Amino acid sequence: MAEKKETALPDWRPQTRAVRAGLARSEHGETAEALYLTSGFVYETAQEAAARFAGEAEGYVYSRYANPTVRMFEERLAALEEAEACMATASGMAAVFAALAAHLSAGDHLVAARQVFGSVNRIITGPLSRFGITHTFVDGRDLNAWRKAVRQQTRAFILESPANPTLDVMDIAAIAEIAHAHGALLIVDNVFATPVLQKPLALGADVVVYSATKHIDGQGRVLGGAVLGSRAFIDDHVQPFLRHTGAALSPFNAWVLLKGLETLPVRVRSMSESAGAIAAFLAERLGAENVRYPGLPDDPGHALARRQMAGFGSLIAFTLPEGRAQAFRFMNALKLIDISNNLGDAKSLITHPASTTHSALSEEERAAQGIGEGMVRLSVGLEDVEDLIADIAQALDAAGIT
Prior knowledge:
Order of helices and strands: HHHEHEHEHEHEHEEHHEHEHEEHEH
Radius of gyration: 22 Å
Number of domains: 2
CATH architecture of the largest domain: 3-Layer(aba) Sandwich
Number of strands: 12
Oligomer: single chain
Number of helices: 14
Distance between the termini: 64 Å
CATH superfamily of the largest domain: Type I PLP-dependent aspartate aminotransferase-like (Major domain)
Structural class: alpha/beta
Strand order of the largest sheet: 1-7-6-5-4-2-3
């Protein structure tokens, strides 16, 4: 069928792939990608319809299964990630759930870094547990913990590196080796790093998931997600699961995300450069022990990040010493930076994880991840870095930090 058709990819560099990969022009020769806002497709004959549904003829049948605009997004992201195949989803959490649920069955065991995003934690402890899938949480930085957690029934590992919101960095290659030694898949949430700064598949991971809502869109416009991996994993596991459970990415959102991919490398590199400067300022103002950013020489994950990443990303976490009240005073005093739980946007955004993105976790669970009441997470955007530093400085003053 058309959605499975593979074409040779030119030996382009990443920035060219971000602009050109997957482009399929119609007979009209449009410069921008065509937007196919259609739920279904028509056939010249009943025989053609039957052949398409049987997989004997190329062509689309239903946009819940595949759509030309969505397919362009999938092919472009796969090219940028250097993955064999990609399937888009309605959101990042739909991508995570699909990657796990399409692979695991009742009686299987999952090992997860305890530093996974709050909603991922809830998927593991909620629906997957109800489906009879057991789990063990480990400190993702501790390789021995991964080894000790493995059981005979273990079929998958999952982690996020750098982690949200603590920026903990995990050794993807070493963890992949442990997983593979026991016949398990390694699933990596690469949302903080993006395919511009880190390629988990090249490091040994089997599956990569994204919330395309974040850096890939980059302007806070639409929801979207993606699962990437081998052709066999996508075709045999993810595609049937998504086709029949319905978490399809809308063609309009796919079109917006396609345009986001065009500028992704430029945006991520610029935002990362600014984040490095801001992290250095914060480390001097608050003390290095209170700032988490892999680009800082004193950060616990710095050496590993240098090995497995091409840059350190646009996210910073830092802790204000007097807890939630002081964190709120600081955030409320910001004049340029917006308070929002999103990230990866062209606009700089800040949130208080303990009361927003990770509020569903218990106090003990947050403490185990290193998420304190004084921690805030800053997503650095595309504003002038000196304006951002000035805004942070005056807000620190207002919060009583001199």
